[in-house]
Amino acid sequence: MATNESASPPPSKRSKTRATALRELLRGLFRILRANPLTLIGFILVVIISVTATLVVLVPAVTQVVLGHPVLFTPYDPNGLSTAYGQAPSGSHWLGTDNLGRDMFSRILAALPLDLAIGFGIAGFALLVGSGLGLVAGYWDNPRTFGGVVSVIIMRVTDIFLAFPSLVLALAIAASLGRGTVPSMLAVLLTWWPYYVRLTRGEVLAIKHQPYVVAARAAGTSETRILFRHVFRNLIEPLLVYYTLDIGTVIVTFSTISFVGIGVPLDVPEWGTMVESYERFLLTLPWTVLSAGAAIFVTVLAFSLFGDGLRDILDPRSRRALVQAAIPSTLPAKAFVAAEA
Amino acid sequence: MAEPVLDVQGLSVDYDVGAGTFHALTDVSVQLTPGRVVGIVGETGSGKSTLAHAIPRLLPEPPARVRSGRILFRGVNVLELPKWKLPLLRGTGIGMIFQEPINSLNPAYRIFDQIAEAVTVRKMRESGEAPTLFPVTDPHDYSRSPPVKSGDALLRAVLPSLPKRLRSAHRQALMEDVLDYLKLVRINDPETILDLYPHELSGGMRQRIMIAIALSAKPSLLIADEPTSALDITIQAQVLTLMKELMDEVRTSILFISHDLGVIAEMADDVGVLYAGHLVEFGPVEEVYTNPRHPYTKLLIRAIPEGYKRSGPLPALAGSVPSLANVPPGCPFHPRCPLAKNVCTSDPGPVLEPAKGASSRSHLAACYFSDEVARLP
Amino acid sequence: MSMPLVEVQHLMKRFPLSRSLAAWAAREAEEFVHAVDDVSLEIYPGETLGLIGESGSGKTTLGWLVAKLYEPTGGRIWFEGRDITDLSGRDLLEWRRNVQVVFQDPVGSLDPRLRVWQIVGEPISAQEQISRTELKARVAALLPLVGLPAGVLDQYPHEFSGGGRQRLSLARALSVHPKLLVLDEPTSALDVAVQAQVLNRLVALQRELGLSYLLITHNVAAVRYVADRVAVMYLGRIVEVGPVEEVMERPIHPYTKALLAALPQPDPRRRRARYRIGGEVPTLVHPPPGCRFAPRCPFVIDRCIAEDPPLRMIPDRPGRTAACHRAEEVGDVPPEQLLVSPETQADSGSSGAG
Fold first, then answer.
1. Ranked by mean pLDDT, which of A131-145, A210-224, B344-358, C227-241 comes out on top?
2. Is the pLDDT of residue B165 over 50?
3. pLDDT value at position A14?
């Protein structure tokens, strides 16, 4: 055999263990974060938001158990009326107070867990249901089989749902179900799952026809194993990215429903209802409506920025892809994928 | 000798991508005299596609950066033209044919419209309705038309955009021209394909359409970037034969780029060999093939399987093409070269100069030991 | 001659063309693409059978049929004398260790999210219960066979060049010690220099491990080097079979001649030559009654259009088969005759298309 052949990676790279694989993922994370300042901002914001939400919920619960009475994480009681009506932001009230003397900052924080849970929860549920259906529709897509018929049915029902503008549909369902947290969440959920069906189906179809799936079949891998090993693994990345970006959209949609007056009951702090109830104070107490709106904006922005960068973080090939896309080449850019010398 | 249609002098192009800087081309010089075909041969990662795109300035300028050099097209330095003059250079000045016609033909327009667009542009430039960089003369003898210096007062506003779907009166006026060009590329019964879309045609037909579009603009220089690599063998032979016949009829100078040594041998008069962005050899094609003066050329020719396996293992080239981000200092080939000595590893590397022991002065090689190449087994 | 390792008889594979709802309602006859149409051939132990053809010839489909990645629409397949045409389920999975495939696309055939040891070891883990450490050890032992250092076990495919990835594909295919390797265009995505390395390795491995290869490619030079016998396919049929040197030097079938004449040679004397075989390679939806190459054949006579020539032994040419009515007369015509230099423009017609 000829010596000195094009053995690609340099011999200095050692074999890695599982722990180092995790470290490698983190290193990839930090590299993307360093390279992309917007993603870094998004990441930091997401972390701050998530930690704050957890604390807002946990601190009272834990202190209730430990101390016997709950200690609020928020500086003031979010529903606590006071005589300090309509105060502009100041040292004692960071975001001012509303017309009933409630501290805006506390209200915003109090609404954070609910809105976040809505975002994660609804999008998550839609992800599970929608991707499950999409997986079926994508994997068994030969119309001549029973599975194929099921897939066709799934897709046509999905098409019907997709034909309606999501917001309008959500409003219609929420209006018919009546006011309340759960009904409005249900309304959004019912309009949300179809997008995941279509996304998942598209991805599954693309993956199914990849040569590596055929190669796995040729290797003797059973269809179930192919599904779990190859299809799932490659499905997670696009779904997760979409999900992260979707969280913001769900929050906005839900807030809009609340703004219109159908969502959560008025006494439950939620950014959308806040915007609705403070809307008339736009000129007199602007900080009330603006802080609620800003809260929505910042949260959605955080997840959008982070979700954008998530794709690069998850995909080990992303760095190469960025390089390849920039340069014209007649054959696939093999030169630029060559081993790092 | 007539003034060269194309004179690339010391061109160096880099790509600045996040991962590093890729030196796609380093100090490449090549000349085309009118009516000649120059072939550029190189493997992937040699920079040949960059060269093809750099000449009509089709490189995406942010990642790509021309570090140095001049590209003189009929005396005009392409690199110094302002951006708005570039469209004037292309089409009637420099035409291009790409590898995958399904990608370079617009899938949303029918064949008639695509050819008609090119013909219309050319006619508008000929009649003076639209500005052009060079006057177009007929018959296709470009070696005699005087070049127009850039900055000339003749050059005015940018070509107005054309309506894509031409009205029927326009169609009739252009029909004859379009059919002429389809017949030029040997398509029988061209009327039958006028209303088809590119995806309805085979690869060979699409490539002929591409050639028809390029020629209908009557360019002085045609750059063919791997025009037949995506085609089947018999179709490739047809298209190459077509191009040979057209070369006799049309007399456009052609810069033919390919990774296939056989194709270049058939088509080109002179050949340049690119390796890792450097032009390592240049000369008349027969000489370079029968008597290569650079180790890379020699080893590359040798690595093509010719015989049968019973004659022993193929003489394979050791190592692999370096990444353009890490081109070795000095001569880029030295890590894989059997003749490499210490002097080959230091910058600046060998320059392209008449090879020692070559039979003509026009046979150039960038190697300190070009006379020893013949002794390689 | 010894018993063939693989034998196929009258193998057929057709794919339905999708049709509109209106056509289905009108009960119009369904149309098919006949990718492989009545193919019979054998592959012997330890030999390389080259399968050459252009796009639409059906060579890839035939390769996949042999590897049982497709179900044949007709015909039968035998492996080591056993009829495996209807093999399915558990038996099929177990049989798969005998025939492995190296795919054309070095990028797409390796799952980008799995590491080397998982990819190369997949056939092993599909066949037997094996621990992770054991699997890694087995894969590590395989890598030197294809010229890769053992340290790359935990890397991802994108960290390798095209040639490196091709080696990974090869290692994966060899992991279960198959008897037959179906190589689907193993060199197409590679540069010339890397091709030479891959070809050398394939030849060496065959000698070492006693493998048989079905080498499917349009790269005639590669086939000439590696193959022992060669079969030429056109539009779903085999048009010629024979020992590689014989077929390359003295092709009988006009299509083989056309193919060989079309190869660009680094011979500057060919500069003046013009290729005279016109026509496109269509897809076979409606098989004609006569020879499929007739529309393009320079030697065509009336009989060719009316009657489909069978693949038959050619007298005076031992070991050669060809599907041509005029094999005896035109068999000796060298491929160069299909090229014309412009001086001899006596012939009519140009390399017209369509």
1. C227-241
2. no
3. 41
Q: Report the pLDDT averaged over residues C165-182.
A: 93
Lowest mean pLDDT among A277-281, B168-172, B237-241, C183-187: B168-172
Residue B249 binned pLDDT confidence (cut-offs 50, 70, 90):
confident
> Would you say A341 and B322 are in contact if contact means Cβ atoms under 8 Å apart?
yes
CATH superfamily, region C46-64+88-241: P-loop containing nucleotide triphosphate hydrolases (3.40.50.300)
pLDDT on residue B168? 66
Residue contact A8–B323, C-beta within 8 A = no
Sheet strands side by side (includes C317-322): C99-102, C180-184, C212-217, C48-52, C229-234, C237-243, C317-322, C312-314
pLDDT of residue A45: 92
User: pLDDT-derived band of residue C178, with 50, 70 and 90 as boundaries?
Assistant: very high
Question: Can you give the length of chain C in residues?
Answer: 354
For B14, name the nearest residue in chain A, comparing CA atoms only. Answer: A327
Does residue A95 sit in helix, strand or coil? coil
- In this predicted structure, the answer to whether residue C76 has a pLDDT above a threshold of 90 is yes
Match domain A32-75+95-316 to its CATH number in 1.10.3210.10, 1.10.3720.10, 3.90.1150.10, 2.40.50.40. Answer: 1.10.3720.10
Best mutation target among B187, B232, B306 (most C Cβ atoms within 10 Å) is B232
Report pLDDT for B136. 58
Q: Please indicate if any CB of chain C lies within 8 Å of the CB of B234.
A: yes
pLDDT, residue B24, reads 92
Question: Is residue A180 very low, low, confident or very high in pLDDT (cuts 50, 70, 90)?
Answer: confident
Residue extents of the structural domains in chain A: 32-75+95-316
% of chain A with per-residue pLDDT over 70: 85
CA-only gyration radius of chain A, Å: 25
Contact partners for chain C, using 3 or more CB pairs closer than 8 A, are A, B
Quickly tell me which residue has 């979700």 as its tokens.
Answer: A307
- Count CA atoms within 13 Å of residue A134 on its CB side: 25
Interface of B with C in 262-281 (CB under 8 A): 262-263, 265-267
CATH superfamily of this structure's domain B6-148+162-275: P-loop containing nucleotide triphosphate hydrolases (3.40.50.300)
Q: Helix, strand or coil for residue A169?
A: helix
CATH 3.40.50.300 occupies which residues in chain C? 46-64+88-241
Per-residue model confidence (pLDDT) at position A4: 34
Amino acid at C150: A
B13 near B53, Cβ under 8 Å? no
- When CB atoms are compared, the residue of B265, B316, B321 closest to C267 is B265
Q: What is the 3 state secondary structure string of chain B?
A: CCCCCEEEEEEEEEEEECCEEEEEEEEEEEEECCCCEEEEECCCCCCHHHHHHHCCCCCCCCCEEEEEEEEEECCEEHHHCCHHHHHHHECCCEEEECCCHHHHCCCCCCHHHHHHHHHHHHHHHHHCCCCCCCCCCCCCCHHHCCCCCCCCCCCCCCCCCCCCCCCHHHHHHHHHHHHHHHHHCCECCHHHHCCCCHHHCCHHHHHHHHHHHHHHCCCCEEEEECCCCCCCHHHHHHHHHHHHHHHHHHCCEEEEEECCHHHHHHHCCEEEEEECCEEEEEEEHHHHHHCCCCHHHHHHHHHCCCCCHHHCCCCCCCCCCCCCCCCCCCCCCHHHCCCCCHHHHCCCCCCCEECCCCCCCCCEECCCCCCCHHHCC
ipTM of the complex in this document: 0.85
Q: Which residue reads 């609020």 in tokens?
A: A72
Its pTM stands at 0.81
Nearest residue in A to B17, CA atom = A323
Domain ranges of chain B: 6-148+162-275
Separation of alpha carbons C278 and C296, rounded Å = 6
